[in-house]
């Protein structure tokens, strides 16, 4: 690299790396020190022009990659392991799970939902739902769940059509000039009402498809968002918004129909109000009959009614990594973990997860390289003016990665897979905060051009990389609010195919934190009660 070179890291074999709590100095934790200015407004346009200028762009990108240790830790590094090109986990990797109901391949979605609902504590019976819906002030806020809607429909207190109309009115109001929230890229009122009418008829006939019949579901038109695609774009927004985010093992949910933006790190997931709703949605879509590149083990659905009877779950915690977050997040997540230990008696063990910053950079190179290759045929037929300024900058950075960068990133993936497999030999899950910071304000200068804020961006994705890069299941559950009133999430990363264990953990965490950790949003529409 000449002028832009830096001393390359020489990695020792992964098997020689200390994973214990008192790791030697060679495995010290590197906190991300991103060296890139926040740019927005006119600066975004200027930077996009510079990076798209052949020689000048190469020089600027080379400096940025040098200063951010891409050359040192990835490009020029000496890595003994072979490349691992996909985060595959065979069914042999599955460990027996406790307190589950096993569903075999070929079971219909409705039957799986029925099994899931049967394993959920009946803490909200129809009479309780009816009381909650009754007129009168309420001293606390709770989000309506799948079972609440199903109960209200079954009792005749409301219908899917009534709920659909309230929903469409809310969408219209949110899209108006007063709020201009733009919640949906596409929403077909006619289709929504048609489906609601069909659902209403089924309830009137006493034959709903399942507990989810008539429950509104929003689908992300595109799972990934530049410039931070496939870095926890299910779990991260869930944590920032105070809901549950769940990403199963790579291959558990079918990718059929998804845009192949990132072949080896892009995976679908679920956002839901509660862990119970997450379980119900997971049961509905985890269809083993759909095409998947992996052979999967049987689908285990957790019996949340017996979560408390699980004798022990061992949680691995890397203190230096866990604590590398804002003061409020560190405090709230630490207290939440202590509550889990106190209420359930489960233990945590101290470990070292080596080379976390190296994994972040390797993931970034992998994601960027695959994104560029995937979009090439579209970008070649598009005028640059059709692409956002911030996206153009990201694509310029992605396009600068070489085949050597990509191969070395896959070698680092191989190392990380080994590290995590060794940790999971003695622990059931790894516990971390979900993000290093809470949601930060979008500044006015970013409204027309977008922005690039890689410093805050790196803090947001600090704990989400392993789930995507290694294809591991992970779930985040809200555990409180920072001093600004913004939600904080705690994350559990599991061994391959341990979705049921993660749902048990998340449910226990949800119950330990209590219902007070659910504040009413500033903008809220009650679809079951009349406004």
UniProtKB/TrEMBL annotation:
InterPro entries xref list: Amidase, Amidase_dom, AS_sf
The record, for SUPFAM superfamilies, names: Amidase signature (AS) enzymes (SSF75304)
Entries under Gene3D superfamilies matching the protein? Amidase signature (AS) domain
Q: Which Gene Ontology molecular-function terms are recorded?
A: catalytic activity
Q: Where is the Amidase domain?
A: 230-503
State what protein this is by name.
Amidase domain-containing protein
Its source organism is Sorghum bicolor (Sorghum)
């Amino acid at each position: 690299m000449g002028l832009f070179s830096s001393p390359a890291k020489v990695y020792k074999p992964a098997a020689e790396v200390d994973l214990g709590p008192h790791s030697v100095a060679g495995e010290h934790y590197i906190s991300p020190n991103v060296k890139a200015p926040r740019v927005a407004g006119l600066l975004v346009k200027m930077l996009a022009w510079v990076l798209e200028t052949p020689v000048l762009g190469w020089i600027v990108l080379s400096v940025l990659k040098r200063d951010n240790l891409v050359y040192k830790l990835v490009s020029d590094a000496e890595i003994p392991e072979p490349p691992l090109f996909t985060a595959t986990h065979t069914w042999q990797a599955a460990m027996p799970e406790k307190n589950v109901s096993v569903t075999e391949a070929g079971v219909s979605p409705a039957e799986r939902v029925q099994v899931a609902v049967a394993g959920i504590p009946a803490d909200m019976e129809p009479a309780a739902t009816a009381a909650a819906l009754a007129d009168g002030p309420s001293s606390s806020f709770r989000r309506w769940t799948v079972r609440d809607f199903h109960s209200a429909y079954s009792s005749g207190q409301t219908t899917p059509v009534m709920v659909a109309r309230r929903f469409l009115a809310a969408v219209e109001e949110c899209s108006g000039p007063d709020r201009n929230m733009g919640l949906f890229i596409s929403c077909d009122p006619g289709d929504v009402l048609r489906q609601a009418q069909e659902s209403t008829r089924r309830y009137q006939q006493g034959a709903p498809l399942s507990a989810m019949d008539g429950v509104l579901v929003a689908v992300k038109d595109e799972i990934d968002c530049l410039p931070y695609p496939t870095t926890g774009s299910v779990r991260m927004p869930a944590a920032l918004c105070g809901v549950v985010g769940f990403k199963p093992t790579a291959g558990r949910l079918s990718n059929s129909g998804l845009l192949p933006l990132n072949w080896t790190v892009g995976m679908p997931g679920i956002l839901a109000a509660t862990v119970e709703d997450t379980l119900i949605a997971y049961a509905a879509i985890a269809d083993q009959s759909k095409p998947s590149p992996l052979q999967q083990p049987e689908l285990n659905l957790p019996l949340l009614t017996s979560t408390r009877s699980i004798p022990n779950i061992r949680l691995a915690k890397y203190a230096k990594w866990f604590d590398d977050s804002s003061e409020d997040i560190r405090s709230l997540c630490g207290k939440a973990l202590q509550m889990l230990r106190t209420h359930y008696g489960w233990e945590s063990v101290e470990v070292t997860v080596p080379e976390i910053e190296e994994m972040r950079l390797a993931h970034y190179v992998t994601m960027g390289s695959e994104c560029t290759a995937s979009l090439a045929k579209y970008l070649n037929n598009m005028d640059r003016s059709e692409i956002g300024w911030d996206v153009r900058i990201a694509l310029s950075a992605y396009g600068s990665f070489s085949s050597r960068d990509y191969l070395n990133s896959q070698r680092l993936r191989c190392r990380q897979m080994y590290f995590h497999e060794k940790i999971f030999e003695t622990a059931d899950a790894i516990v971390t905060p979900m993000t290093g910071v809470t949601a930060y304000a979008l500044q006015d200068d970013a409204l027309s051009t977008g922005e690039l804020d890689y410093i805050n961006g790196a803090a947001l994705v600090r704990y989400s990389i392993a789930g995507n890069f290694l294809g591991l299941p992970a779930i985040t559950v809200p555990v409180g609010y920072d001093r600004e009133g913004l939600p904080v999430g705690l994350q559990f990363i599991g061994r391959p195919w341990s979705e049921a264990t993660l749902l048990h953990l998340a449910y226990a965490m949800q119950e330990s934190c209590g219902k007070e950790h659910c504040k009413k949003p500033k903008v809220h529409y009650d679809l079951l009660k009349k406004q």
